Amino acid sequence: MNSAADQVMKASKNPVEPEKEAENAIVDLRSAIECLKQTPGQLLVCNEPVDPNAELAGVYRRVGAGTPVEPPTKEGPAMLFENVQGYDIPVITGVLASRKRVAQLLGTEPEQLPHHLLKALESPVSAEMTSDPNPPCQEVVHDKGIDIMKLLPAPTNTPLDAGPYFTMGLIRAEDPETGEADVTIHRLCVQGKDRLSVYFVPGRHIDQFRIKAEKAGKPLPVSINIGLDPAIYLAACFEPPTTPLGFDELSIAGGLRKRAVELTPCVSVKAKSLALAEIVLEGEILPDERIREDIQSNTGFAMPEFPGYLGPAKKDLPVIRIKAVTHRRNPIMQTIVGPGLEHTSLAGIPTEASILRLVETGMPGKLLNVYAHEAGGGKYLAVLQFQKSSAADEGRQRQAALMAFAAFSELKHVILVDEDVDIFDTNDVLWAMTTRYQGDVSTVFIPGVRCHPLDPSQTPQFSPSIRESGVSCKTIFDCTVPYHLKGEFKRAPFADMDLERFLKNSVDPAV
Ligand code: MN
């Protein structure tokens, strides 16, 4: 990791006394890991030496990354690599790569997650400054002669990545004009001893702060917080219109835990970091300075993007100069392999809550549930479970789909199903698409609408109907039964039995 000489050790705080309630027992990454250690099948601890350069992601791709990572892949446990070559810092990945695991970490049920997040959104708790003068994230401080790559393992996900990345770096910054705060995860490529490049999808809030600072000729101070309570990462992934510019997403994490997220002043810049982060990089986004993302490797690529393709390296990205690295004693690095179930949870569950909220406002009680499917990385494809309870509800399911597009502008496909379909079971959804759907009358095309830049199918080369990249066709697949035919679409009524009685008196002859 680093020599003892360049460490400044600070007095440690007493460990937080875990509370009784599940939702309050988890305060940070390490308490989340402790929770997973109690449940079979949720965490693999690996001692085999692993190279952070493409190997770690190559292993997890098979263990638990999930669609849309290229097969073979599957849903699996999170994985903690204890022996990372060149570092004495372990690396964990896949903490959120399972809906079941996310539900466990938030103290709810997998199918209740959008409702759970919606509740937190409606009862936010603002972040607060910690009263602890020696917060855990600053137990060790490096502020001289920083060499990021010597201090911290930053994985590359594929051999073609532009360079080493911090992929779970939660950036926190404040609006230079209003002081309002924002937190967002952005991909950060290590570009030198004290330099990172940062990619902002156009319009992101921290980029708007950066542009304001640059216009004034000033750097934008930021903290990059890595290794966090999963509730914080999830809350940070809400997007407008649910969380408009100036809305601090940390307050949703506070709502989820019913406790304020604690902040602390940075040691080297005028910014605030998350007191319970494992690792913090403090720095400034420099005005009028840009870097080509793959300047070190010249691969032409950045890293695997959430739709499952390797993204192109960007030509001129803003640069963050790192002024200090602070961390806990025995810190844990957290990473995501790019596409897969972890991205689906992060992007998708807030999307579900946003859709639920908007449709619920317009037509209360009709939209029973939403699933932002992993095929679209949680952003492009949503399955809506809609209940038609009278003849007047016919057609309103399509209205709900239109509202879903309004709630989340990057959404591309909506599949509508009835209340008797399991939206989390793709087989059941495809059954509805097979037996309750006629292609020529049950499909609604909405062409020429702004979608999302990373979907490679929406270019004029793909179809002349697409005038410019990213302005493409949104589609509704209405797989609901027309209300007046409901009686003819009843599923075969098998008897509802007490399984326990039979299973405990059954054996598998092969075991
Ligand atoms: Mn925001």
How would you characterize the overall build of this protein?
- There is one protein chain.
- The longest helix is centred in the last third of the chain and has 22 residues, at 341-362.
- The strands form five sheets. Strands 1, 6, 7, 8, 9, 10, 11, 12, 15 and 18 form a ten-stranded antiparallel sheet that branches. Strands 20-21-22-24-23 form a five-stranded mixed sheet, sandwiched between helices.
- Residues 1-21 have low confidence and may be disordered.
- Strand 20 and strand 21 form a beta hairpin.
- With 511 residues, it is α+β, with helices and mostly antiparallel strands.
- 24% of the residues lie in helices and 23% in strands.
- It is globular, with a radius of gyration of 24 Å.
- The structure holds manganese (II) ion.
Provide tags for this entry:
511 residues; alpha+beta; 10-stranded antiparallel sheet; 5-stranded mixed sheet; globular; binds manganese (II) ion
